[in-house]
UniProtKB/TrEMBL annotation:
Site residues, Lowers pKa of active site Tyr: K78
Organism: Salisediminibacterium beveridgei
Keyword Oxidoreductase: yes
Protein's name in the database: Oxidoreductase of aldo/keto reductase family, subgroup 1
Taxonomic lineage: Bacteria, Bacillati, Bacillota, Bacilli, Bacillales
Positions with a binding annotation for substrate: H111
Catalytic residues of the enzyme: Y53 (proton donor)
Length: 278
């Protein structure tokens, strides 16, 4: 890993940037087109959105206005829960393409494993992949049980599982399972939604490396072999978040961070969330 252009090879050979930009609710912090323009100017090449975020159209405008060729970008979106099932997923996918002003996605994910529907949703993703409409397909917020259930009938193994992951929710068993099956783990909410940036252990490690707490959390993901997508609408913070390729956390740092595990969710707990969907 050298910079924002550094990539990891997924299980189908597609190269995915290690570090991208998350944009959940980013439009609340400013014009999403301007945010995307700023991110691309700062060197970001991976943008992660979803139909649920309701900002795909603005992202499409930002990409269209950029001089950066589409093939140099890695664009991810997700199908939302009320659009799951085979036919609805196909429609939702093409709606996302239209809003993003592109004729393909680099990665398309099932946002949540909706009971009774996610297998048909996955079949739709497999067909979109076969048609060349998406370069890689994957899932989000899937537990080990969900993955086992999906792969019992799947033709294609997911390339990515995107979940909440940080030192207070380290997902070690899930990560091990994904590694064993060639599934790349990707972290959403790596900065704990700002809730733990003042943790004393984190602050000590940040001072030791002359880095910010956010940079330590991003580097923690990277040092675990986890792709990550921190969110920011501010140019200075975008640049700061990307300035993590000139250091590594040492064994002492990693040991201290490992002790922070609490099973603490700052976003929805998948088990609780799925109970509501069932």
């Amino acid at each position: 890993m050298k910079d924002l252009s550094s990539t990891i090879r997924l299980n189908n050979g597609v190269e995915m940037p290690w570090l991208g930009l998350g944009v959940f609710r980013s439009q609340e912090s400013g014009d999403i087109k301007d945010i995307i323009t700023t991110a691309l100017e700062a060197g970001y090449r991976s943008i992660d959105t979803a139909s649920f975020y309701q900002n795909e159209a603005g992202i499409g405008e930002g990409i269209k206005a950029s001089p950066i060729p589409r093939e140099d970008l890695f664009l991810t979106s997700k199908v939302w829960n009320d659009s799951q099932g085979y036919d609805q997923t196909i429609r939702s996918f093409h709606d996302s393409l239209n809003k993003l002003q592109t004729d393909y996605l680099d990665l398309y994910l099932i946002h949540w494993p909706v009971p009774g529907k996610f297998k048909e949703t996955w079949r739709a993703l497999e067909d979109l992949y076969d048609e060349g409409k998406v370069r890689a397909i994957g899932v989000s917020n899937f537990t080990i049980g969900n993955l086992k259930d999906l792969m019992a009938d799947a033709r294609i193994t997911p390339a990515v599982n995107q979940v909440e992951c940080h030192p207070w929710l380290q997902q070690k068993e899930l990560h091990t399972y994904c590694l064993e099956h060639g599934i790349q783990l990707e972290a959403w909410s790596p900065l704990t939604q700002g809730k733990k940036l003042d943790d004393p252990v984190l602050l000590d490690i940040a001072r030791k490396h002359d880095k910010s707490p956010a940079q330590i959390l991003i580097r923690w993901d990277l040092d675990q072999g986890i792709v990550t997508i921190p969110k920011s609408a501010d140019k200075a913070r975008m640049i700061e978040n990307a300035d993590v390729f000139d250091f590594h956390l040492d064994p002492v740092d990693l040991g201290q961070l490992a002790e922070l595990e609490e099973g603490l969710h700052f976003g929805p707990d998948p088990d609780e969330f799925m109970e509501k969907l069932a």
